[in-house]
Specification:
The protein is an alpha+beta fold and 282 residues long. The chain is 34% helix and 25% strand.
Amino acid sequence: MFNTVEHTKRLARVDLAVLDGVLCPGSKAKISVRDDGLLRGDGAFELIRVYGGRAFALDEHLARLAASCAGLRLEHDGHAVRADIEQLLSAAAGVDCDLRIVLTRGGRQILLLEPQRRYEARARLGFITYSPSGVLDGLKSISYGANMLATRLARERGHDEALLVSPSGDVLEAPTASLFWVGADGVVRTPPLDLGILASITRAVVIELAEAEETRCRKDDALDCPEAFLVSTTREVQPVVAIEGHPLGGAPGRRTRELMRAYRDHVNTHPETEARLTSACR
């Protein structure tokens, strides 16, 4: 039976934020309208999945955050970020949620807990031509307007999500997820980073689990593959049922199912613990 009281308590634990070191309700956190993070989309961010109060792959996410800040010439204090994470997750008391970290050009350090996102069990993808900005390659900037527009354009055409394609016809990624596909030979493949796609942490995990190859993929190749799936921090492994209206068969396919299980096993056995986080903040 659904427990309304427990559900309300859980939502209250998720409505939390730490703004510049101060714990507060997420709905009450505010920054100046003059912050260039708002006015110009100038800043860096990370989104981390939290399982039972444990931030998954925290070190990897914070390393990428540091690299993004360095690339953007944005000052940040890694120790302060870790301390704020510890404070926020301690207050959340073991909840399952997403943790967003945003560092703005105006000098604000924002950490927010968000309810875990819910996605369709199987995604239908539509091609959207997209030209990445080379100067931002590899940086997780908050300038995500083009990515969000791509998703809206795909949905206007009846798809669930966009599949970004370069002007020359190379398949890249989804706006907030990495693409993998399975060839007729059973080998799992994904586009290479030198195409300007994000070095996703979940992508790196799946490459290792699947012994995947980095290979360029053209639009026609994507339509011919028997299996495909998206991966991201919040999606984990999401099967793709169709690309540009072309069905991929009985999604999820065999290899996709294997990797869905393997990824969840990896999460459940990951050595990172709350105690490790605490010791790193000392």
